[in-house]
Design goal:
Elements: H1 2-7, H2 10-22, H3 24-27, H4 33-42, H5 46-56, H6 60-64, H7 67-76, H8 80-91, H9 96-101, H10 103-114
Helix pairs in contact: 2-5, 4-7, 7-10
Keywords: Cytoplasm, Repeat, RNA-binding, Translation regulation
Protein name: PUM-HD domain-containing protein
InterPro entries: ARM-like, ARM-type_fold, PUM-HD, Pumilio_RNA-bd_rpt
């Protein structure tokens, strides 16, 4: 799929990237889908980064504690507009201690703190 994304251009490419972006919360849970979301993030297109941020909002605590999802959260941490979503989700969760004690969640928290 990543090669397909790289080879596509024009309207169809934007449509595909849009669909991946708005479905990134469910794709991030998938052992293969998370690589596709990470690939879209690496393209650094602000339009799709914003869509991914919006799609992941409310799912960040759960994603941070999953092997696949944590990689997506880590990749998008470098975008400043995403940090607010992460902080909001963590502060509105009663599971922050659970995230900190989780092997994947702990790494996400460390990465977020290190990058700031």
């Amino acid at each position: 799929m990543n090669n397909f994304i790289d080879e596509m251009s024009g309207t169809r490419s934007k449509q595909l990237l849009y669909l991946i972006s708005i479905n990134s919360a469910s794709l991030s849970n998938d052992p293969y889908g998370n690589f596709v979301v990470q690939h879209v993030i690496k393209l650094e297109n602000p339009e799709f980064i914003e869509l991914i941020c919006l799609a992941l909002k409310g799912h960040l605590v759960d994603l941070s504690m999953m092997k696949e999802g944590s990689h997506v959260v880590e990749k998008i941490l470098k975008f400043q507009n995403f940090i607010g979503h992460l902080v909001f989700d963590f502060l509105n969760s009663d599971r922050i201690i659970q995230v900190a004690n989780d092997r994947y969640g702990n790494y996400v928290i460390q990465k977020a703190l290190k990058d700031q």
